[in-house]
Specification:
Strand content: under 5%
Order of helices and strands: HH
């Protein structure tokens, strides 16, 4: 004697291929979004470090002596 409830539990349902494609698309978009956020965060951090380095170099750089003007030779 088969129980109707057990047949529903163990019976495999056919899945729509479009559902799997949608799942793959959502997963890919989530991964791309995470990578974009990480890239933007890294870019902002590197920009901040670069600006700090440039400011430190500008503060520590000795004043350049005035350049001498070259005199034109008279003919």
């Amino acid at each position: 004697m088969k129980n109707a409830n057990t047949n529903r539990i163990f019976k495999s349902e056919k899945k729509n291929p479009a559902d799997r494609a949608d799942q793959a698309t959502l997963a890919a978009r989530a991964i791309n979004e995470q990578e974009a956020v990480a890239r933007e965060k890294k870019t902002a951090r590197l920009k901040q470090l670069r600006l700090e380095k440039e400011a430190a170099e500008a503060a520590n750089a000795p004043a350049e002596p005035a350049k001498k003007r070259k005199l034109q030779k008279r003919k």
